[in-house]
Amino acid sequence: MEIMHAFSKGIKTTQVEHQVISDFGIIGKITEIIGKLESLPGTEQLNYSELKLKPNIKDWIDSLIADHSTELDERPMRYLLSDFTSSMNTRSREDKKNVVGILFGKRIIICHSLCGSETITPAWDIITRMLDTDNVIRFVSFDAGEKFTTVHFWEKLASRFLIDWLGLARKRGFAYGGAYRLQSEMEEMTVELQLDDTQIDKFLESHPEFKNGKIILTSAINQLSVESVKIAGSPSYSVEDFLQLHAAEKFGTQPYRDQYEEINHGILPVLFKYIDEEKEVVRISEGTKQILVKKDLPDVELLFVNEYVDISHTYLNKLITRILNNEPLKIFHVGCELNEAPIKIGKTEFYSKLLIDDLTHFLIDFYNSTKLADVDLDHIFKY
After folding, report:
1. What's the CA gap between 241 and 12, in Å, rounded?
2. 242: in domain
3. CA 197 – CA 50 distance, rounded (Å)
């Protein structure tokens, strides 16, 4: 009979408890509860391939699903739970909250639960309390089938944390806002008025016509001032910042910008060497190479190089060769804002926003409008 591995960790603790469950009755009960979680209203279902998980998270999940040895390597699950809790925001990391990890065959469940700290014990007959729908704050499950892995996830209150941890586009997230949302149509657009608990009563008192499905405004409106734009699970953005973010997400570069910020935030140049390679960004220590970012944006060269991250000589030479050979090339440095109207030098397009003086602009325009017969002069201009 297949055994079940159960792990738990307090949100604010580093210790991860592990217990092997072999009792058929307990396994059956836990499996039944997990099934109820996955059928909660609002549960999302995706194919595993749709997620843009960080390389380490994906490696841990793949390792756990593939591990059929008698002696389970506990480290991937311990790393997974630690990463899951460390990525949460402050409110999610309050006391009396914990995370549970279940591994059963080719199935992984991670559950963020609100329970007393006394439940974090090896007495796994009470694990059902942790998984009870009344206590669950959010969960993610990975179920590996013969052809593909199915992912289920659910949150009581949607958060940017889970969207980012799973590597989902923000547009898939819950449309955050006030507790009460009144929807209407205006100029072929859906318009939503958001009210919180303190506003709804006042609104109903001042708009008795609402009972007839109408809102009568006291004055004509022909222009709306936009103070901010809010995207699912994220903070509010100014219009300028939103347009930049929207362009980056449409172009497919935003996840890499987030990873760039994350690398810079936790960079340790004294202990590790960081290399920007053609297909990935790696961290090297004592001869061991760890992949931090996998680049998979088609037709665009993504650069992470900076004062702490070196670019590999092979990759740099390849880029220079393509530029000098006048091959079509799109380049974007993920540490810069996106420029939807790229700077073009020959067939090379730079999609990063760059500060360029008037003289350089003149030289670029001159080069693009002039066919230089002298190869050496052409290369000098490109440099």
Report:
1. 34
2. no
3. 36
Residues whose CB is less than 8 angstroms from the CB of residue 211 and which lie 6 or more positions away in sequence, other chains included: none
Does residue 48 sit within a domain?
yes
Tokens of 328: 């079509």
25 exposure class (CB count in 10 Å sphere: 0-12, 13-18, 19+): exposed
Phi and psi, residue 218, nearest 5°: -80, -15
Same domain membership, residue 258 and residue 365: yes
Length of the chain: 383
Tens-place pLDDT, residues 273-310: 999 999 999 999 888 888 999 998 888 999 999 999 99
Provide the number of structural domains found in the chain.
Answer: 3
Distance CA 63, CA 46 (A): 20
**pLDDT one-digit tens code per residue, 221-257:** 777 777 777 765 555 678 788 777 777 777 788 888 8
Burial of 86 (0-12, 13-18, 19+ CB in 10 A): exposed
- Clarify whether residues 161 and 121 are in a common domain: yes
Same domain, 217 and 279: no
CA angle 199-203-206, nearest 5°?
Answer: 140
Give the whole-angstrom CA distance, residue 184 versus residue 315.
53
End-to-end Cα spacing for the chain: 67
223 and 270 share one domain: no
Say whether both 187 and 316 belong to one domain.
no
Query: What is each CA distance from 336 to 33, 113, 168, 215, 303, in whole angstroms?
Result: 47, 39, 22, 45, 10
Shared domain for 167 and 207, answered yes or no, is no
Owning domain of residue 216: 180-231
Instruction: Tally the C-alpha atoms within 13 A of residue 308's C-alpha that lie toward its C-beta.
Output: 17
Phi-psi label, residue 94: left if phi above 0, alpha if psi -120 to 50, beta otherwise: beta
* 200 and 267 fall within a common domain: no
Pair 277, 372 in one domain:
yes
